[in-house]
Every structure is written in C-alpha cells, then in structure tokens.
Amino acid sequence: MTERRVVVVGYDAAELLDIASITTSLGIANLHGVTPAYHVRLATPGGHPITCGTGLTLLAQETLERVAGPLDTLIVSGGIGHLAAADNGGIVAHVRRLALESRRIASVCTGASILAASGLLDGRRATTHWRWAPSLASRYPKVAFDPEPIFIRDGDVCTAAGVTSALDLTLAFVEEDHGAGVARSVARELVTYLQRPGNQAQMSMFTSAPPPANELVKQVVDHISGHLDADLTAATLATQAGVSERHLTRLFLKHLGQSPGRFVRQARTEAAAHLLTSTTLPMAAVATRCGFGTVETLRQAFAARYGIPPSQYRATQSSTGVRLG
C-alpha cells in the first residue's frame, strides 16, 4: 500500500469544523512521516463547491458520483444540512456504494443520519450529537443510538458525536494505523486532549443542561456542587432542604431525570476527572476532595462512568503543560 485513500463526504450546509478536524489531523500525521501516508480528498455531489453551515464556501476535490474504490476510510461529515442530505437518494446511494469498497466507514456528528439512511447502521449501536440523538433514534428505529459516548466503533463502522469529537475519532484512527506515539504527537500539534476515551460522556453535567426550573432542586444542586466532600446522602440533603427524602427524590427524578444519590455520584466523578487532568494531586487527595473517601471507591465510580480506571484517565488525558497542585 503506497497511500491510505481517505474520502470525506461533504454537502451543502455541512459543518466546516467536522471536515477540518479530519483533514487537518491527517495532514499533521503526514507531516510526522507516517507510512503509508494519508491521501485525503473532499468529495461533494457533482463535485460542486459547498456552502458550509457558517456560510463559508469549500471547493471539492472529487466528484462523489465518480469516486471509485478501494478506499481506506470513508467519512461522512455532519452539519445542519444533514437531513436534506439523508433525504437525497443520490448521496445516500453513493455513500452505500463506497462503503462496500472501504476498509472502514465513519460519520461525524449528524453525519450518522446519512449512514443510517443508507442502512449501514441497521442493527448497530451508534452515536451522534447529543442534541440530535432522540430525533434520529425516532427516525431510524433500526439503529441503537447512544447519545453518551464521544465515539463508538461497531465492527468496521465508527460514529462520532458532536463536532470536535471528529478530532478524537481521527486520532483513534491514527493510533490504529500508526501507533500511540504518532497519535500523541499529532494531538500535541493540535493542542488538544491526548485522546479522550471513546466512551467518555459528550457533555458534562455542569454544562449539558440549564439549571433546574424548580428552585428547591436548584438550591440542592448548588449545595452539592459546592460541598462535594460533605455528607451528601439523600437523607441529609432532604433534611437540609426541609422536605422528606421521598419528596426530594421525586423532585430530582422529575427535574433532573435521576435520583439524588446518582446525581451526587456523577458530580463527584466529573469533579475527580477535572482534578486528575488539571492538578498533580495524589489519587488519595483527589478522592478525599471529591467525597469518595477512599481511592478504591473513586476507582469503582470512575470505571463505571468512564470505562477506565482513574490512573489511566490521568495518564492519557493530562496536558503536557504546567498543572496546578
């Protein structure tokens, strides 16, 4: 193999960042001398320029209808034009055709809707942008959409979540093709995470949703966030809020979709993840600050949330810059 042929499928109102995250990452990998190198091309319907969702225009390098395999990787971009693209029989047919001639197939963000329309995701687990996951799950009932992970690999088909997760997916491809050392070098050039694990949640609980509308729930949540190392049992929280434990649980389920205990565990785990990557605190100190009590309790909660132990998370996600102690 003299080169790895990679085709990125674009269309009107595609997301520029989806496309650039892929092309730039693979271009930097080439600058590091990978062999075989990546030969990356943007293919569009008719080979016409596309106007991205932000209004910028991209020139195509290939005509989608004329692209022929074999390909190393076929990647479909997402964007606000994804539903129109998924309803375009020509785009869907050519994606399906090229998939048969590709070693691996992928989508970024809402590009999953086009893979789903082609039938390539039928019977598979897939992810997409968290905001679009419910509607795509309804539109394509044969696909098991999971809005949580950053990316999912199911056989030779990979789907990535929203926008910048394209970086994570592409870095995973670089590691698969050329080793972890090259992937880390590319990540450093991009000044990005040294690869977030694919099963890391797309959205933090602190940013994914607006504050709860119920004032009592909001007060309890604020207390939890500011006192992670305190006694945060449901009984204690209920007493402080002046309601019964049963009533507090009912309010949490209604406004947050989870029990107080589960919310506390999630808050502590995400706080631990932040400390692991932004400080040099010993593991025991991280556990204490976040209210876990012991390193083993932290390890169990972390493995349940992120699928990896906290030590591995720190080793792979910490930046190379100065960290606060």
Major sheet, described briefly?
7 strands, mixed
- Give the proportion of residues in helices: 40-55%
Secondary-structure element order, N to C: EHEEEEEHHEHEHEEEHHHHHHHHH
**Residue runs with pLDDT of under 50 for 5 or more positions:** 319-325
Strand order of the largest sheet: 5-2-1-6-7-11-10
Q: Give the distance, in angstroms, between the N- and C-terminal Cα atoms.
A: 48 Å
Kindly state the number of beta strands.
11
Q: Rg from C-alpha positions?
A: 22 Å
User: Judging from the principal axes of the Cα atoms, what is the shape?
Assistant: globular
Structural class, from secondary structure content?
alpha/beta
As a percent range, the share of strand residues is 5-15%
**Mean pLDDT over the full residue set:** 88
Note the total helix count. Answer: 14
Describe, in plain words, how this protein is organized in 3D.
With 325 residues, the chain is of the alpha/beta class. The chain has 14 helices and eleven strands. Strand 1, helix 1 and strand 2 (37-44) form a beta-alpha-beta unit.
Any descriptors?
7-stranded mixed sheet; two-stranded antiparallel ribbon; 14% strand; 46% helix; alpha/beta; 14 helices; 325 residues; disordered C terminus; globular
